[in-house]
Amino acid sequence: MSSLKDLLSRSTERPVLLIVPTEKEASQIASTLNARHFPGPDVFPFEEVPVSFFVRKGRIETLWSLLNEDQKLVVASLYSVSRFTFPVESLKSLSKKFRRGETFIDAFRLQNLGYERTYLVRSGGEFSIRGDIIDVFPPIYERPIRIELFGNSIEDIRSFDVISQTSIEKLKQFVLLPAREYACESHDYDTIVGKAGSNGTIFDYANFEILMVDADRCFEEFAKLERQIREFLSDEQYEEYRKYSGLNLAELQRRLQNAKEVQLDLQGLEYSEKKASLLQVPIIDEGELNVGDLVVHENYGVGVFEAVKPVTNALGTKEYIVIRYEDATIYVPVERLDKIHKYIGDPDVKIDRLHGGTWKRRLDKVKEDLRRKIAELVDIYMRRQEVKGLGLVGDSEMERRFAETFPYVETHDQSIAIQEVLEDLASDRPMDRLLCGDAGYGKTEVALRAAFRCVVSGKQVALLVPTTVLAKQHYRIFKQRMEPFGVSVALLDRSVPKSERNKIVEDLRAGKIDVLIGTSALLSDNVKFSDLGLVIIDEEQNFGVEQKETFKKIRLNVNVLSMSATPIPRTLHMAMNGMRDMSVLTTPPLGRLPVVTYVARYDDRLVRGAILREINRGGQVIYVHNRVEDLREVYEKICRLVPEARIVMAHGQMPTRKLMEAVRSFYERNSDVIVCTSIMQNGIDVPSANTIVVDDAHRYGLAQLYQLRGRVGRSDKRAFAYFLFDCELNPSALKRLQVIREFSGPGSGLKIALKDMEIRGIGTIFGFEQHGNVNAVGLNMYLQILNEELKHTMRAEPLERVDVEIEGLPGSFYIPEDFIENEMERLRTYRRMASCESLKSLDELKAELRDRFGELPEQVEQLIDLFKIRLVAIQKKIKKIAFDETTLKVYTENGSLKLPGKFIYNEKEKVYLLYNIPAERCLSLLKKIFLRY
Q1: φ/ψ bin of 46: left (φ > 0), alpha (ψ from -120 to 50), beta (otherwise)
Q2: Partners of 578 in beta bridges
Q3: What is the DSSP letter of 838?
Q4: pLDDT (tens digit, 9 = 90+) per residue, 582-631?
C-alpha cells in the first residue's frame, strides 16, 4: 500500500480520482490538497427539496474542468462517483460559448437546461427575461451574466452585481453550461437523473488513475447509505432509484478493479478554510407593498392598499395608488409615493376615517410624547460630549496582520462597521456605539477588531455576555484569534473554580490580562481592571434591570460597544443618527443560503431522516426540547431512533463541568447530535451544524423560533430547520409557525421582528418603551416623526417641510407594464424615484434602469423629468405648480423666480401666470424654467 503523498508527488499525465469514505472527508481533503471536490447529493431521493445549487455547481464545474483537461486531482466519496450524470457527448453538445452578434437561445431552452425563471436573478441557476434584457447565472461564474439583445442577436454581454443589480464589466463572450445534470423541461429528476436520459458517470470524463483511501470503509459507508435510502423509499420508489440514480455495486466494483489503495492520515491532516467566493444575496426591502396591506398616508392615516391603477384622461396617463379608508377611497399619484408608508404595528388596528380628525389627534399625541423622551436622551448625550475620550490609535501594521487571520471575506457592511468603530476609538470622545445585525451576520468580527485595537493601544477589554455557554464560545474564538499575537485572554463565569477565579482577578488588577470575557460576574465589586479601555456588551436586552443601570454609568466614562441581534429597519438607523452612534449589518455573509424550513406534525421517521441526511453529508444536528424534566427521556429516544449517531445532551441545570464537556464535544465535532434545551438559542456558532429539529415548536414565541433557526445555515451548505408539534394548534401558534416558514431568506429576521411586534425590542435601542406610539401611527411614520423631532432638538432646526404639489400637468408619467412587468418592482422603482434627493441620484437611477431593463420608454423619461422638476422646485421654495387648460400657474414663497417669455405676477397670491401655453409645450416649458433645458 503506497502513501498518498508519494503517489501525488510523481509526475503523471493522467488526472487522479481520489475516493474517500465520506462526504465530510472528501470536502476536508479537497480543501487541504487544493483539489476539486465532486460532491454527492445533499438530499435523499424523492424529497420535496431539490439538490442544492451548491452541489450541482460543484459537480458540473468538475465535469467541465475534466472536459477541458485542466483538472489534475478530484476528491469524492464512493457514493458521489457512483451517481449518474451527463454522458460526455451530452455535456459537450449542451454547453455553448456565446459572443456578441450571435443568436441567443429562448426561455424554453434555458428552462430545459435546468435554469429556474425568476424576476430578479439573485442565485446560481436562475434566469430572467425583461424585454431585450436576459439575465442568467451559469455554474462556472462568480457573477451572473446580462445579455442585451437587438432582435434575436446579442448586442452586449456584461457581468452584473446581484446586490445592486447593475452591470460591472463588459465581456466579449461567455459559456452557458447546464444548471442541472440533465436536460428536461421538468426539474424533478435531481436524484434520478437517469430518468431524464443522463446515464453517464464521472469515470467517462477522463482516463483516471483511481486511488482509494481505506477501501473497506469506503464500501461500508456506501452500503450503509444505501440501506438508509431503502428505509425511506416505497417499493415503487426504490425500483426507480435503483434503475435511474446510479451504478449498482457490481458495476461499481468493476469500474474500480484497477484502483490502488493508499494511506492517508485523516486525523493528521490540517484543514484550512478557504475564503468564500460565492456571492451575497441582498435582503428584501422592508417597505414592499402587497395588495391588502395596511398603509399610512401622512395626511390621512391608516388605510388599506387596494391597487395600482393607470388613469387616462385628456391630459395623458398616470398611475395611482388606490387606498381605501372607512368612509372613502383616495387615489394618490405615484410620484407622491413618498407620502405613503407600509403600516407596521398592531395587526388589529382600525383603519381611519378621512373626516373626523382622529388621525391628527393621534399624531399630535405621539409628537408630544416623543419630545419629552428625546429630552432625556439628549441630556445623557450632552453629558457624554463633555467627557474626554482615550484616543486609541493602535498599531496599523499589527492590526493589518490580525485582520488577515479572518478566514472569510468581509461583507460590505462589516467593512463599514469596522471602520466606524475604529474611528470612534481613535476620537477624543468616548465611544457609545450600537452594532445591530441579523443572526450570523458577523458582529463578532467587528468586536474582535475593536478589542484588538484597544489592546495594542495598551488598554484592557471587558466582554459581557448573558449566558455561560455564549461566554465559553466567545472565549474560544477570542483566544484562538488573539493569543498568536501575544494577547492574554481570560474567562470569568460560574464554570471557573474559586482558586482560578481569585488568580484571574489578581492578574486583571495587575494588568496581566488584556481581554476578560464573562457573564454579569464581571460587574461584581471585587473585579477591578488595571486600565480598562473598552466594554463590549453582547445582547444587552437579555440582562436584568440592575445590570442595565450599571451599563448607564459605564457609558459616561469608557468606550462601549453594544451588540444586538434584534434586526432593525434602515430607517431607524437614519433616525437615530446623531443621537446614538449605530452600525447596522444588513448584508448576509458571502455564500449564505436561506434555511429550508419545515413545519410538520412530529413523526419518528421524519426525525430519523433529517438526522441521517445531515450526518451523511458530514454535518451535525441540534435537537431542541425545552423541558428539562423530560430531556433525558427525549435523549434516550433519539439514541434509540438513530443508533448510528454519536449523541450528547446539554441543559442549563447540569453541573457546569458536564455542560461544558457536552458543548465542547459538539463544538469540536466529536459528536453528531446535541439534544438540548433552548440554551443553544443565544449566539452559539457551529458552522458544521446545518440541521435543527425543534419539537413542541408551538410553545415558542416567533422571535425565539427565529433565534433557534439562526443556529444553522452559518456556512455555504444548505441548512434545514424542522419545527414540529404533536397536538392541535390554536390560531396564534399556527400563525407563528406559518410566519417562520414563510420568511426564511436573508434579512428575514427583520421581517419576522416586525411581524411579531418584536418592534418592542426597539425600546432597547431608545432605552424606553414606545410600542404604544408605534402602534398608533405605524413604525415608518413613527420614525419619520422621530427623525424630525431629533433634528429639531439636537440642531435647533425649524420643523419646516417644504413640499410641492404638481397638478394637471399634461403628459404620460408612469412605468409601462411591458417595461417593468413585476408590480412589486414597479412600486419599488416609483418609491426610489420619490425618495431621490438630488438630480444626480435621479440620473444614476435612470442609468440603472437603462442597464437593467433596456431602452427607457417615453413615459418613463417624462416621469423622471417630472421628479427632477419637483426637486428643483423644492429648492426654489415653490409651493405648487398647476396647469389649467392653457394657463400655467407657479405659486412661490418669495416671488424671485426667473421665467422666460411673457408672464403676469400676482403679488398678493405670489403666483406667476403664463397664458396661452399649448398642452404639448407645458412639460418642455417647465424643463426650461427649472432644469435649464
Answers
A1: left
A2: none
A3: S
A4: 787 877 766 667 788 888 889 998 999 999 989 988 889 999 998 888 99
**Quick one: pLDDT band at residue 634, thresholds 50, 70, 90?**
very high
Angle between helices 858-875 and 823-835 (to 10 degrees): 30
- Burial, 316: exposed, middle or buried (Cβ in 10 Å; 0-12, 13-18, 19+)? middle
The residue type of 907 is: E
As a residue count, the chain comes to: 933
Pairing of strands 673-676, 647-650: parallel
The dihedrals phi and psi of 837, each to the nearest 5 degrees, come to -110, 5
**Is the pLDDT at 134 greater than 70, yes or no?**
yes
Strand order in the sheet with 73-77: 2-3, 260-263, 209-213, 16-20, 73-77, 36-37
CA-to-CA distance for 711 and 676, rounded, in angstroms?
A: 13
Cell representation of residue 40: 454527492
Residue 75 to residue 36: CA distance in whole angstroms: 6
Record the cell numbers describing residue 134, joined without a space.
436576459
199 within 8 A of 87, measured Cβ to Cβ: yes
Beta bridge partners of 581: 433
Pair 674, 649: CB distance under 8 Å: yes
Phi–psi pair at 736, nearest 5 degrees: -60, -45
Q: How far apart are CA 388 and CA 427, in angstroms?
A: 9
CB 658 within 8 A of CB 632: no
Between the alpha carbon of residue 474 and those of residues 86, 437, 518, 562, 723, the distances in Å are 46, 17, 9, 15, 28
Closest alpha carbon to 478 in 521, 528, 538: 538
Mean pLDDT, the chain, whole residue set: 83
Reading the block at residue 566, the C-alpha cell is 434584534
On whether the CB atoms of residues 647 and 675 are closer than 8 A, the answer is yes
Cα torsion 526, 529, 530, 534 to 10°: value is: -170
Nearest to 493 by CA among 466, 530, 531, 455: 466
Kindly state the cell numbers that stand for 153: 442577436
Interior angle at CA 509, CA 506 and CA 514, nearest 5 = 105
Dmax over CA atoms of the chain, in Å, equals 103
Any residues with CB less than 8 A from the CB of 329 and at least 6 apart, and which? 306, 322, 323
Q: Distance between CA atoms of 868 and 862, rounded to whole angstroms?
A: 10
